[in-house]
Amino acid sequence: MENVLTKEQLFEFIRKNNIQSVSNIYESLKDLFKDLLQSFLEAEIEETLGYEKYDVKNKQTTNFRNGYTQKTVKTKFGEMEIDIPRDREGEFESKIIPKYKRDISEIEDKIIALYSRGMTTRDIHEQIKDIYGIEVSAEMVSKITEKIIPEIREWQNRPLEKIYPFIFMDAIHYKIKDKGKIVNKAAYVVLGINIEGYKDVLGIWIGESESSKFWLGVLNDLKTRGVEEVLLFCVDGLAGLKEAIEAVFPKSDIQRCIIHQLRNSFKYVSYKHIKEFSRDFKKVYQATNEEEAFENFCQIKEKWGKQYPYAFRSWESNWDLLTSFFKFPPEIRRIIYTTNIIEGVHRQFRKVTKSKSVFPNDIALEKMLYLATKNVVRKWTQRYRNWDMILNQLLIMYPERLRDYIK
């Protein structure tokens, strides 16, 4: 099980170290990491000599400690002075800080990289031991990964671009310990496509089970961070989400995800009919225009409506939100008719979190999702195909709203 500091321990850490800023956190973590390194070195020479410091009774060697040599090493916290233990006969050689090595930052990088791929602290302990021959406790892994918390806060609060033609919003759910109980919480994920056609994850918020009220706070956060204009939001069918979007970005169009809508309809359809039902509905969302889509919808309802009336009610009551994409040309429709783009991110999240049935707290989940996001975004180096054509079409459709944002 992962070892994470409790709130009480964190408060005590803050009080003892007089934490008042992010720089204070870095300095305190630097001191903590230095102490851990020094503890490792003491453990190493103890293993070499076979007895603890001052434990002369159990000494079974003629060799003994012979003071320290000061060495400057480079870590992710910057340079620090470390006292390397010496022995009289020169047998001791540290594994964690080898004789001629002055840069040990890659060990921290390795720990964080393993953590970002979903390995538990126990697994990381074994991996580092196998690779480097170093005993890295689960507690130390937790402390090293905690150093990215200021980085997460900086990323989550970073200024955003003024305009995103398309924004996708969806939530993924996890079990988290909260006040001694295991509760379901949602990671609210927002992905944007900017004016140059590049994707980016704009933020991840951990909150109670998905609600339009929480989404309203997320939308206000986007606006506070600099987002002025969104042409279209692509979302699931959560009740109240349309009203939340309209309250913050009243000019924006809204497209409900067709795939989410189909899945919702499948709840009312017998398993033996789902494939045929789904195949029929392709005639709706793959139609040439909204008029044709509605005609095909009526035909499908005539075929299945008496047998599965509830499968069609949500389509009828939300038709305007489900067909917003028909006002766009085919190149844009393929991007916006579904939130599959953000579900692809969720699939990567599930890969790295599958070993965690329950997270000990929100921060543990935040750390893992943030590191997974960094790995995903790093691969997004190319803009959308035919983006120049798409942008020209958007300029024709929204000339006044886009003019000020085109350089």
From TrEMBL:
Example GO BP: DNA transposition
Key word DNA-binding present: yes
PROSITE patterns, per database record: TRANSPOSASE_MUTATOR (PS01007)
Molecular function per GO: DNA binding; transposase activity
UniProt keyword annotations, A-Z: DNA recombination, DNA-binding, Transposable element, Transposition
InterPro entries associated with the record: Transposase_mutator
Domain of life per record: Bacteria
Physiological role: Required for the transposition of the insertion element.
PANTHER family per the UniProt record, alphabetical: MUTATOR FAMILY TRANSPOSASE, TRANSPOSASE FOR INSERTION SEQUENCE ELEMENT IS1081
Family recorded in the similarity comment: Belongs to the transposase mutator family.
Name of the protein in question: Mutator family transposase
Organism: Caldicellulosiruptor bescii (strain ATCC BAA-1888 / DSM 6725 / KCTC 15123 / Z-1320)
